[in-house]
Specification:
By secondary structure, the protein is of the alpha+beta class. The chain has two domains: 289 residues, DD-peptidase/beta-lactamase superfamily (Beta-lactamase), CATH 3.40.710.10; 106 residues, Methane Monooxygenase Hydroxylase, Chain G, domain 1. It is 28% helix and 18% strand. The strands form five sheets. Strands 1, 2, 3, 4, 13, 14, 15, 16 and 17 form a nine-stranded mixed beta sheet that branches. Strands 5-10 form a two-stranded antiparallel sheet. Strands 6-7 form a two-stranded antiparallel sheet. Helix 2 packs antiparallel against helix 11, helix 3 runs parallel beside helix 7 and helix 3 crosses helix 8. It is globular, with a radius of gyration of 21 Å.
């Protein structure tokens, strides 16, 4: 029987792997040549070749790749173009829409409150969002009471029973009608969600959904601060995530990457309005952030260090261990979009590889991470003390870059 929380031995093991290298008072990560941290520079060069090949083949317009090991950045390169109209080169400080890579950040914000005793994973969501007290579960044409209350843990691991409205659940037409994410703010979003049934009983199924947007409202009400202000003060400022926020301000638009999608003659620049260039009123913890490779590396390095970076303690090490180990109830394991992904569970904010899968050899047990709708990716391998970030702006979502880069990076590990 899978335990809901990791055992003491697992937590201790995780803390050893996540142990930091001491306080740092600079706000830049250290760097190293690949050979100094056990990677082959010649094999790592294959990453650059793969990115250039994708651009030449018209699969992407440009991108940024960052690789870090043993607490130091050993590879940070930009490829292709940030924009083609007019032509502008991709740079390592280019700002990207990271969409669902926002979710681990928002979850870390909630875990700060867990550390402070203002929140607990077992708290019922209705303690903070009473608007949801009467929500039923859709069972065919019937609406029944949930078998148990929805908890904060359910929000963080996508077992709350919500949907997104576009992943093929029977209740999706109702989501498209009510448009909870079209609300003016998080309070109105909760009011709209109260009109909708759940797709399943809390805890029964892993259903990717807007649950982390609800988590943002929980953070807002539990902390007594607007969600974006809380993130700025408790995460972005201490981690010096200076280009991370819920929109790209005018003075930084010259660094903002354009989004591309398939057109009649290859990739075409996405047209229409861009919600990321104006301050939003609904602060989306599920998909609202823009960021850079540098900033997101700061976030992952904090996680790698067991909750500390630049002399700032953000989270307790044992809290980080909860985020980075599987928390799914047995009935909800494994995760999957349409079909199960064997061996993959979900922690608080991150997917987590729990069991080896012979069909995916370059996915070690313990690897955790998540991706974003414009084809951005981040993953961490604690066993290898390694993390990788790949950023591009292509929709609909593609995991092609991650699938290309991952085996090349692992192949470059001389000691693996």
């Amino acid at each position: 029987m899978k335990s809901r929380f990791p055992s003491f031995a697992v937590v201790v093991s995780a803390l050893v792997l996540l142990a930091g290298t001491g306080c740092r008072h600079s706000t830049e990560l250290g760097t190293a040549v690949p050979q100094a941290v056990g990677l082959s520079a010649s094999k790592l060069a294959a990453v650059d070749d793969a990115m250039k090949r994708q651009i030449a083949d018209g699969d992407i317009v440009g991108g940024v790749v960052l690789v870090a090991r043993q607490g130091r950045v050993i590879h940070l390169e930009a490829f292709g173009q940030r924009d083609t109209e007019p032509a502008a080169p991709m740079q390592t400080d280019t700002i990207f829409r990271i969409y669902s890579m926002t979710k681990p950040v928002a979850t870390a914000a909630a875990m700060i409150l867990v550390d402070e005793g203002k929140l607990h994973p077992d708290d019922p969501v209705t303690k903070f969002v009473p608007e949801l007290a009467g929500v039923k579960v859709a069972v065919g044409d019937e609406r029944v009471d949930p078998k148990r209350p929805m908890t904060v843990a359910d929000l963080m691991r996508h077992t709350a029973g919500f949907s997104y409205g576009f992943l093929g659940h029977p209740i999706d037409p109702l989501y498209n009608e009510v448009q909870p994410l079209g609300a003016h703010d998080l309070d109105e979003m909760a009011e709209r969600l109260a009109k909708l049934p759940l797709a399943d009983h809390p805890g029964d199924t892993w259903l990717y959904s807007l649950s982390v947007d609800v988590l943002g409202l929980v953070v807002q009400r539990a902390s007594g601060q607007p969600f974006d202000v809380f993130l700025q003060e408790r995460l972005f400022d201490p981690l010096d995530m200076k280009d991370t926020g819920f929109f790209c301000p005018p003075e930084k638009l010259h660094r903002f990457a354009a989004v591309y999608e398939p057109g009649e003659d290859g990739l075409a620049r996405q047209q229409g309005g861009d919600r990321f260039i104006e301050p939003p009123t609904l602060i989306s913890g599920g998909g609202g952030l823009v960021s850079t490779a540098r900033d997101y590396a700061h976030f992952l390095m904090m996680v790698r260090n067991g909750g500390e970076l630049f002399g700032h303690r953000i989270l307790k090490p044992e809290t980080v261990a909860l985020m980075t180990h599987d928390q799914l109830p047995p009935a909800a394991f494994p995760i999957g979009f349409g079909q199960p992904d064997p061996g993959v569970g979900f922690g608080f904010g991150f997917s987590v590889v729990v069991e080896p899968n012979p069909g995916v050899p370059d996915r070690p047990v313990g690897q955790f991470g998540w991706s974003g709708a414009a084809s951005t990716h981040a993953w961490v391998s604690p066993a290898d003390d390694l993390f990788v970030i790949t950023l591009e702006q292509r929709q609909p979502y593609s995991n092609a870059t991650a699938d290309l880069i991952r085996p090349l990076v692992y192949d470059a590990l001389a000691d693996r």
